[in-house]
Amino acid sequence: MPAFNIRTICQTTIFKIALIIIAVALISGLNLWRNHKYSGTLVHTTKVEEKVLGEKVYASGRIELQEKQEAVAQESRILKQLYVKTGERVKAGQLLAVLDCPAEERSLADALAALASEELRYKELVNPSAEDLAIGQAEFEEAKITCDNKRKTWERKEALCAAGAISAQEMETAR
Q1: What is the domain partition of the chain in residue ranges?
Q2: Where are the transmembrane segments (predicted)?
């Protein structure tokens, strides 16, 4: 019988695979042994049922305020007038107080003045005065006469060019 040499056994692939399998098994077993006391979260289940509650629920009891509600302005202003008293019931949209806002009032007045100025300017453009209409009419007539004069000059030069009395360069200048 041949003698087994330890070196040849260690070099064989079967021996190497066996060592890897043993190492994996030891590591897995050690992890399972350490975590064997793990207890998951207990979950209770129940069957879902559909029930009709009805349109109204009648109950007796008392409603109490859990926390006090305060009305606070976003910016510090002087209070001009207060329309409600402490503890008084209010409705949605009810005016509670009026604050003094001089900067905003000035800004509003400036905006209203600018609006009035623009409205006046618009009315002047849409409904011009008799004087503005006369000026516009005179400017139109002047432009019409100038146009007629230039057209006549052009027609004359065109006739002269056709007759050979003026050069093509003079004709180009007339254009």
Answers
A1: 128-174
A2: 14-33
